[in-house]
Each structure stands twice: as C-alpha cells, then as structure tokens.
Amino acid sequence: MRPTVLRSLCVSVVSLAALLAAGCATPPAQRAEKAAADASPAASPPPDTIIINANIVTLAAPPAPATAQAMAITNGIITALGTTAQIKSLAGPSTTTHTPPPGTVLFPGFIDPHSHMSAIGFYGDTTHWVDVASTNVLFKPSPGKPGCTGTPDPQTCFIPVTSQDDVIARLQAAVKNVDPNSKTPYVLAFNYDPARLGASKGCSGVGFQCINFENGHARAQLDAISDQVPIMVASESGHIVYVNTPALNLLNICGVIAAGGTSGSTGQCHQPIMNTPQETALARLGQLDEDLALYAIGYFQGKIIEADPLAAEKMLTNAATVYAQHGFTYAQEGAASFGDMALYATRLDTAAERATFPLTMAMIAYDPGSADMSSTLSAATRAQKLFGDNPLISVAAVKTFADGSTQGYTAWLDGNYFMLFNPFTDASIFPQQPYQGLPDVDQAGITARVTQAHQANFPMIIHQNGDAAITASLAALAAAPPPPAGKRDVVLHAPMISDVQLQSLQGKPVTVSFLVPDIFYWGLMECQQILGQSDTLGMYPTASAFNAGLNVTLHTDSPVTPPAPLFAIWAAASRSAQQPSWYPNKSNCPATLLPPGGSQAISIEQGMRAYTVNAAWQYGLEDSRGTLEVNKIADIVMLSNNPLNMQNNINFLRTVMIVGTYSQGRLFLNKAPTTNWPEPTAGLP
C-alpha cells in the first residue's frame, strides 16, 4: 500500500499530517497564496534539503497529486511536497536549497529491472579490453564529435565493426601490443556479435553466411591470429565466448585437451555443468557456451583484478557513474557470484566510500559453477550477512537460466530455427536434427530451483528466450510454491511469450520484464536469418502484457544493450528495427516490428512507469520507491524536458538530457552529457 499522508498539493510532513490543514480547505485558485501566508516552520527538525521552483511529476496514483512545485528531504526521505512557498517555510539555517535549471522536470529515479552493471565498468577498461562491438554500449562519441577528434580510435570513439575483417584487424593490432612481461598478457575482446556482421572478403552475405567465430572453427581462426598470446572474445549476449589454444590451456576445461595439456581426468579441471557432451565438444573447437562462457569471462577478469587489486573498485565506480548519468538511481548486478558481491561490499564498506557512490545496488545471486541451486543460495545468504545494514546494497533475488540467446542460437525453441549453420548442423555434436536449441535447465530442474529459492525466502528471476524455455519456465512457476509474501518472481526477457501465457500470469506475484532494445539491435537479424519474419514481428509483446493487467518492466540487460532507459522506452514505443548500412535487408523485413493486424507499441507513459512504479513493485519496494511521495526514499531523476509531452513525436525522446539525480537524498549533478543517446542515427526527428 502507498502512504496516504500526501493527498493534495498542501504540504504534508512526516508526523505533522495536520500542518496547514486550514490551507487544504481553500479553493484551488487561492491555495498557493493562502498556504504561503499560513505556513510556519515545522516543529520537527528542519529538512536537510529543499528543492524549489521545480516541475515535479510524482507518478503517484490518485488521489495523490500528479505534480508539485517543491520538495523537502530529510535523512534521504521525502518529508514534504507542495508549493515553493510552503516548502521554503520549512527550511532551517542548515537546510540546503536547490533550484533545478529552468525547464528541468523531476521524476522518480529510474529503477533497473535487469542488467549487469559491473560489466560496463570492466569493458570500459581500455587497457585490458578490446572493443569489437557494432553497438554503442559505452556511449562513445562518434568521429568528429567532442571527445573523438583527430585520428579516430575505436577504443575511445564509436566505430562499429561491420565485418569479420574489422574484428580480426582489431585483434591483430591488440596482439602486437601485448607485453609478454605483463601480469595480464592477454587479448580480451567484448561484445562480438556475428549475427550483426556484414559482408567480408570473399563473402557477399551477411551474419552467419560469412566466416565468423561461431562456425565451429573459432579456435583455428584465433590461433591463426596468435598461437602464443591467449585470446578470448566475448559475445554481446554473454552466452558464448570464443578462445584460442593458449586461452584453452589456461581455462583447463575437463575433457578438453589443448596443446601440451592433459585436461580431462583430474579434479583440477573445470567441469561443464549444462549439456556437458555438447559443451565439451564445442569447447574443443574454441566455442564456450552458457556456463563455460561465464566461467571464462570471470576467469580472465579475475586475473585483471589479481594483477591490480584496485581495478575492481575503479571499475565499479566508473560503471555506477555511467548508470547515474543516464538516470538510474537503483541498479542491478544481474548474475552475481559471491566473489562479485564481495567486491561491491569492499567498494561500499565505509560511510566515506558510500557517499561518492550514486546508486543503490540490487544483487541477483547466481553461481555459474553449480549444477543445482545450493551454492547460489549459499552465496546469497553469505552476502546478506556480509552486507549487514548497508543502505546501498542488498540481495534482491536469485537467478536461474532456462536457456541461452536467440541471436547466438542457444535459445531453446519449440520449432525450428529459420536458418541453421555449422556447428549446429553437426550431428556428431547435436544428434537431434534439425537443431532446436537445448535447455540450460529443464522444467523439472527449474521447478526444483524455484521451490528451493522460495523456501530460502528469495524470489526467483528466470532467464528465458525461446518459446520452449518460456513454456517450461511458466510451468515451473505454476508448480512451485509462491514466493515469500511481498516478493515477486520475474519472467525475464521472454520475447516469444504468447497472449495465452501472459493471461495465465494474471493476479500472480510475477513481473514480466522485456528486453525491448533487442527489437532495435536484432530485429532485422532475427527476421532475416535466425527466427524468420513470422516469429520476429510480434516479439516482446509489451502491449499485450500491459493489456493483460500484468506488472510490466523494461530492461537493457547491459552490456547487451546500452544502459539507457529513455532509449529503451523509445524502442518499446517505436518498435524500430535498425537497418545498418553494412547489413543489407535482403528479405524485405519490415523496419518496424508490428504483428499482423495489431501493434505491440506502448506509450511513453507506460514506458516511464515500467522503469519506476512497476520496477519498484518488481522488487517489492512499492512502499519506498517508484513514485515521489511523502515517506518514500528521495530517489529522483532530473530531466531537461518532459518525456510525457512527446507522445505525438516519440523521436523527440532523443533530445532529453539527464541533468542529474538524487540518490537517497544525495545530489549528483551531471556534466551536460553529450552522449545520452547511444546510437547516432536512431530516432532522428
């Protein structure tokens, strides 16, 4: 239930609900004038901060006011809302007064329903990571823009890779710069995506039609670049990693014998836990899927932190800064091992360290090395004790995977993929042909994990992409006991969920969270090669979910897509599919993904609520976050103009800048960001 003390533009103060009661009876036209005349300082301690002469949009449910002019904050809590005159009357000699720039509009801070925040910090480490992305996940400036002048460098400028030739050239250049005496003599690359690549030398096709690392020959191709320097290339989805022989030697995967190695029989090797025969066979070819991909990324990032113990703190700080600059006040670490959570605990250990951190963090516990739920739950409970009463960090849920990634061919489908390529056509690796993907965890396994999570007092987040994975996940939720009171499970991603399945979730303590920027970045690729037009047009049925009365949130799954809430809202409202200049649309796939006879586009207001009101409900925080009301935490985003006024031209969303945020009442102003919109040509008016 929401607090009921705030029910008009008359000021309401904690423990002083009767304050200015006479003013509340005044006709609206005289209300501000009378309140200013009658208001007197509160008897309780004056607020720490007041925000005046502002445009405040509360997003609160009626009869609470939709707007206000000023706000008081005490100990990080909103203690009053009203007119500027009313709030100024509450100030004391030590109260800080903030007047936002003219035109600024204040909304509840954006709440992150799902992402992997630390990866933005890790991948922004240009010393150790090579950018081979075709998406601007790090908000880099384009050539010629401020911050990217002179000779453009893809490490600091947004220069998308457009072909496999570009990727190889960047890896070759990185190999030449490796210092063999370094503590981290590796080449590590991020956000490679063969699905989005265009024609390369000797190939006029696109995506998987041309030579790429996901063709069963990654190890040989990367060995050709270097058979001495370990190379690891992480996919954009994070569900697949590609490695050469020296990297395989370091990873020491059970059943995989690399050059000079004898892995496979000792307890010292790392054992694949999902679809072990297939994962092992692919690993021999240099392709690491699912849990092996997470293991490899964690292994090499661990080496970086081991070489520089302060690296993790710097990366977490940088990632938090990026998230706050784009409006987040509450962010998520979406698959956190105990080691990951311990890094956050170290970064946020003291009051001084917390003072500079602009976000509250939600940890989603997950142990990629565990064949069951026990170690994940152990990590979650250990982290809870480690965090104690730290106000900036908590364990919000635990996680499991039903399948992998559609664009990487690791999603679990009911039917066939539209097109298939090696190694998924290799019957020696995948005996069941045609290949339809494989579950990471089957229905019985998911049911057992959800049951264990609920018994341990945690809600469950279930990653699901293919329609078979969605069916299994929803059946598991139905079979398991409900989550603890006030907590909600999450149906995560679910691009292929049906209307019938959405309706089956009505009235249940479940949030459906959609990765809508996927429409923009992979709509054309899914349509042209991976799923085909019929399965692509209606993907992410966001409007149907809202119409079914469900709690719907949107997310970016960063670093899969940029951590930009307004861009995600635009993607959900426009359903635009990028048409990259290097990736010709040869199949007449529509540039706007609309299912036959209807539309899954949502309004900007629905998008804003998905990132605020609905996201708070997802976390069970509706009493403390998601709207701007008295008694709620002062998490606020300040926008240069009002997105709700842009419904008639949603492309104007790209003009909205993030002025700054308040996180638990602490002000963090931005340096006029120039890269708020990640893709230079997306949504041009």
Query: Total strand count, please?
Result: 23
- Separation of termini? 41 Å
CATH class of the domain at 117-307: Alpha Beta
What's the overall geometry? globular
**Major β-sheet annotation:** 8 strands, parallel
Strand order, largest beta sheet: 8-14-15-16-17-18-19-20
Mean pLDDT: 92
Helix amount: 25-40%
Over the alpha carbons, how many angstroms does the gyration radius reach? 25 Å
CATH-level-2 architecture of the domain at 117-307: Roll
Provide the structure class: alpha/beta
Low-confidence stretches: 1-43, 262-266
Number of helical stretches of at least 4 residues? 22
Keywords: Signal
Protein name: Amidohydrolase family protein
Pfam families: Amidohydro_3 (PF07969)
Signal peptide: 1-31
Summarize the structure.
Keywords: Signal. This is Amidohydrolase family protein. This protein is α/β, with parallel strands linked by helices and 685 residues long.
Characterise this structure.
There is one protein chain. With 685 residues, the chain is of the alpha/beta class. Among the domains are: 21-99, Urease, subunit C, domain 1; 117-307, Diaminopimelate Epimerase, Chain A, domain 1, CATH 3.10.310.70. Helices cover 30% and strands 15% of the residues. The chain has an eight-stranded parallel β-sheet with strand order 8-14-15-16-17-18-19-20. The chain has a six-stranded mixed β-sheet with strand order 3-2-7-21-22-23, with no helix packed on it. Helix 4 packs across helix 10 (311-325), helix 10 (311-325) crosses helix 11 and helix 11 (338-347) packs parallel to helix 13. It starts with 20 loop residues before the first helix and ends in a 16-residue tail after the last strand. Mean pLDDT is 92; it is low at 1-43 and 262-266. Keywords: Signal.
